[in-house]
Model the fold of this input.
Amino acid sequence: MKRPPSVHEFQPDHTEGRLLGPEPAELGLARYKRIWQILISGLIIGVVAFIMMGAFLKARGPARLTDCMGRQRVLGQALEMYRQDNDTRLPPAAVWRWAISDHVDMVGGLTESVEDVGRVARPPRGFSSPMRCLANQTTIPISYLYLDPTELQPQYPDVADRSDLPVLVDETHHRSVVVLGADGSSHVVQRPKWVEDRENTYHIARRPDWQNTFAYYVAAPQ
Done:
C-alpha cells in the first residue's frame, strides 16, 4: 500500500499548476492537533510539578525544624561550657553571642567563625553558623532570642529555677516555636501556647532592641 505523502513531500504538477500533496484544510487540522497535544502535555507536566513541589515543601518544614533543634543544642553546649568557665553563670543578654563565640568554635562542626556574627549581616545562602536557622531567609545574622535566667531571680525566683525555662528561642522563622530549655533539651511548641507561656508563665518579652541584642527582658509584675 502506498503511503500518503508527508507535509514536506510536495511534488510539482505542471499540468494543473498546483502542488501535489495534502489539501490545505488537512494541513491546518494536523497543525491544530499538534498544538493541542503540546498544550495538554505542558498542562500535565505543570500539574505533576505542582504536586511534587507541594510534597517537597511539606517535607522541608519538619527537616528545618529538626535542623534548628540541632543548632540550638550546639549553642546549648557552648552555653554550658561558658557556665563551667564562669562560676556557673550564663552570659549577660546584651553580649551573649560574643561571649560564647569561642565556646561555639570549640564545640566543632562549623565551617565559619561566629566571632563577629552579632554585627555583620550575612546572606542566607552558604551561612553555616549554628546561630542562624536554615529557615531564616532574611539578612538578620542570628535566629534565636536569649534569656539570662539570673534576670528572673529578683522578681520571679520560682520561675528562674525551672528546668524547662527557655534559654534560646526561635519564635520567628517557623510556624511553630523552637525552644531550648535550661536542661539542654530542645523541643517544638505551638505558637499560641508559646505566646501564652511567654507572657504568663515565664514573664518575658522581646527587648525593644531585640534585632541588636537578640534577647528577652523580664516583664515587671502587674
Observations:
- The mean pLDDT is 78.
- The CA atoms of residues 203 and 220 lie 8 Å apart.
- The chain is about 40% helix and 15% strand.
- The first strand starts at residue 11 and ends at 13.
